[in-house]
């Protein structure tokens, strides 16, 4: 994974939400923390080009997120804060197959990929279920499956354990820990990122601290106090 922010800034209607940021990310598991409204989601959305920089640029694996937006989005999977927004088609296995449609694979290959990804997350029994019937934890695992079936090189998750009860939170946390993919996780759940390779702390639209989880979480506690 090679993500570069080069003096990249984000503004919404003249208001700076992310001050110019220069940063290179190569670690496999990166956590992003900070108070509400500190700019975390905006930062994450800039990585897959959902938010275009108002100045500077963001380059992902050699591709500019604006000029080569399609290539970047094919390689950067994004799991939104509300997994309900992730599942578009009513039946889970149909929704997961949808992500593979652009590849024009034979029917059997699509079926094998869908069954394989559902099995990987232990939700094969939910294949024929309607998305709105799933519990919060099941929905989060389904969202993971729907994004990872396309094998993105980088996976971004925006508060993946936010709306979950303790049981589902543990399940989703364990699942995230078991992922082999390059991941960037925004989280208010500090235990989730406690053993990550690098943590970024945002505060008032600036990168306030950057390093190993222990020191950065301590700094966050000072800011929050
Ligand atoms: N599309 C938008 N238009 C206008 N303002 C926006 C937009 N998206 C975000 N903002 C503003 O930018 C600031 C940073 O928001 P952002 O969602 O990046 O923060 P965050 O750290 O992810 O917050 P949270 O932890 O609450 O999800 C906020 O003040 C927010 O209101």
Automatic annotation (TrEMBL):
Gene3D superfamilies: P-loop containing nucleotide triphosphate hydrolases. CDD domains: ABC_cobalt_CbiO_domain1. The keyword Cell division does not apply. Pfam families: ABC_tran. SUPFAM superfamilies: P-loop containing nucleoside triphosphate hydrolases. Residues 3-225 form the ABC transporter domain. Keywords: ATP-binding, Nucleotide-binding, Transport. One of its GO terms (molecular function) is ATP binding. The keyword Transport applies. InterPro entries: AAA+_ATPase, ABC_transporter-like_ATP-bd, ABC_transporter-like_CS, ABC_transpr_CbiO/EcfA_su, ECF_ABC_transporter_ATP-bd, P-loop_NTPase. Belongs to the ABC transporter superfamily. PANTHER family: ENERGY-COUPLING FACTOR TRANSPORTER ATP-BINDING PROTEIN ECFA1, HEAVY METAL TRANSPORTER. This is ABC transporter ATP-binding protein. It comes from Neorhizobium petrolearium.
